[in-house]
Amino acid sequence: MKVIMNLHHLIIFVLVLFCGVQSGDPETILDTANTPDILSDGLVEKLTEAGDLSDSDSSSQVVEDPLQTDTEDVNDSNLSDNSTLSPKNVTQVFINCSRSENISHEVEIVNSTRLLNLLVVNPNITRAITADCLGVYFFARWCPFSTMAAPHLNALPRAFPNLRIVAVDAMKYHMFNTQYGVVGVPTFILFHNGRPAVKFNETDYTLERFSTFITKFTTIPALEKISVTSADFNGPVPSVVVKEPDFFLWLSWGFLAGSALVFFAKSSWYRKMIEVVKVTWRESEAQHDHMD
């Protein structure tokens, strides 16, 4: 019985001692952390190595940041290069025109044969290769806008003595309207190697606008102090509206009238009208026979 009681007290003592050790562990950890002097040399070395590893990790993170900034700098430099290249693409020469010599300093009024001879295409020449350029002005004598732009166009060859400029009556030579997309007059088109390159789309047909347009797409500078004179109002392109009979307009009206008559002849109204005429004619004949 005494042995049992001694074992009982021993078990209680062990439990109390175990609980005390467990409750004292956190305080011991805090104390060892605050008082590293009492630690053994091996533990100090281990903690030092652990600290070195943590420092190396933090240093590796610091090293990674400059790499990221370097890549960002490279990307920014690429963007800056692209931004500097984009204006070059915008200001790139659209057509390369050769500086022709022995060209008349006035506009040449051409017909279809002459214009076709001037627009001969060399298949071996592309737009990037220098070739002859030609400015073609499509006009109509009865169009008031064409006549208002005529003096400015007549002065244009003096501003660009190395560029041939011709004018063609778009109402006489309709074949070019469809071929080159001329939907209205006046229309000015620059040709390169016999091919249409760019069309003048401004609303004001002035010498200044014509000059700016040509210089923009050919880089050929205009001569200074060139202005419209009184002689430019006299030709070659007429600056006075000329009332000409439009035979094609009369032909179109005749075609419409003929089509309307054919359509009416096939309708029921036409048959009723014919029947009424026949009945009236028979009645008049019968009445005439009765009077005889």
TrEMBL record:
Keywords: Membrane, Signal, Transmembrane, Transmembrane helix. Residues 59-219 form the Thioredoxin domain. Gene3D superfamilies: Glutaredoxin (3.40.30.10). Residues 50-84 are annotated as: Disordered. Residues 1-23 form the signal peptide. The chain crosses the membrane at residues 247-265. InterPro entries: Thioredoxin-like_sf, Thioredoxin_domain, TXNDC15. One of its GO terms (cellular component) is cilium. GO terms for biological process: cilium assembly. This is Thioredoxin domain-containing protein 15. It comes from Frankliniella occidentalis. The gene is LOC113217347.
